[in-house]
């Protein structure tokens, strides 16, 4: 039976990428050796790393604009502390829009003063804060562009006179914007790019080297820049697979092309949520995420029937995060419009039955 994977990650990848990645595990570039048993310093793998870094910058339109792309390890969670370690001298601002920003704030507090410039904690992160003022004199302002758990997404980004840092783990490469408004972007690979195990960091070189503390080599962005993202053994499989996904995206027409599909998918699902009395959306309408749609069932008695219907339709991964409950449909780049159609059909069928 065909499966429709709405899981929040990890990770949803195009079938052709999975196929090529598995072939490379058996025989990489016709070498007779596996991708995961060759040297990461071999010519073939160095070319993979370079291609992946270059494609990331190209797709975000950040080539030749003073940025470096790195594929690091430790997940986005390590970036919570690396950002502060490398950039926080005295005080930084954070917009608290959910669990992941909360975690980033906790790490930053180890290094200096943290000002919560805005927060939506009062309503369990249903909305994106607005109307806040960014104080002057910050070392940086940190935001989370898409809140994977709560299903909210920034549509407009704050204007700042300090570096703007963005955790884009769950919506990178999914929508067009001026990426040069950010000074550092990071994203764990495992939503829109590749398997868990590598984290893309795009950093504007001129914001680095300004803190007075000594930064350990492995946690220092400048180390990784100087070593072309090969300071230590990279996660070769995750980087290679990410490179394949970025190639797939480029061949499709880049972010502009995928954004069109992502908007269609989100429109289809949200209009069902809004029209079908069996369901109600969680996040405020104007802040809804194109990637993670959160919703509840209005009558809990119907839950078992709905869950069984989902199973029969081959729909996977629709359970909401434990801090929100209900359902969450994650519609990352590789999820097809057809899969969203299948979900919407099950929801309408539920309305007829309910
Ligand atoms: N930030 C966001 C927005 C996320 O969605 C996640 C994981 O889902 C993380 C950070 C944590 O990522 P990692 O597991 O790579 O540390």
Structure summary:
By secondary structure, the protein is an alpha/beta fold.
Strand and helix layout:
Blueprint: E1 4-5, H1 15-26, H2 43-59, E2 67-72, H3 75-87, E3 91-96, H4 99-108, E4 113-119, E5 141-144, E6 146-147, E7 152-153, E8 164-167, E9 184-188, E10 199-204, H5 221-226, H6 236-252, H7 254-275, E11 279-281, E12 292-297, H8 303-312, E13 315-316, E14 327-330, H9 337-353
Parallel strand pairs: 1-13, 3-4, 3-5, 5-8, 8-9
Antiparallel strand pairs: 2-10, 6-7, 9-10, 11-12, 12-14
Helix pairs in contact: 1-6, 2-6, 3-4, 6-7, 7-9, 8-9
The structure holds pyridoxal-5'-phosphate.
Pyridoxal-5'-phosphate binds next to α3.
Domain Aminotransferase class V: 5-340
Pfam families: Aminotran_5 (PF00266)
Binding site for pyridoxal 5'-phosphate: 76-77, 100, 148, 167, 190, 232-233
Explain this structure to me?
- It is a single chain.
- A hairpin with a 4-residue loop joins strand 6 and strand 7.
- The strands form 4 sheets. The protein has a 7-stranded mixed sheet with strand order 2-10-9-8-5-3-4, with helices on both faces. A 3-stranded antiparallel sheet has the order 11-12-14, covered by helices on one side.
- Helix 1 runs antiparallel to helix 6.
- The model has no long low-confidence stretch (mean pLDDT 97).
- By secondary structure, the protein is an alpha/beta fold.
- It contains 9 helices and 14 strands.
- It has helices at residues 15-26, 43-59, 75-87, 99-108, 221-226, 236-252, 254-275, 303-312, 337-353; strands at residues 4-5, 67-72, 91-96, 113-119, 141-144, 146-147, 152-153, 164-167, 184-188, 199-204, 279-281, 292-297, 315-316, 327-330.
- Pyridoxal-5'-phosphate binds at residues 9, 75-77, 100, 144, 148, 167, 169-170, 188.
- Pyridoxal-5'-phosphate binds next to helix 3.
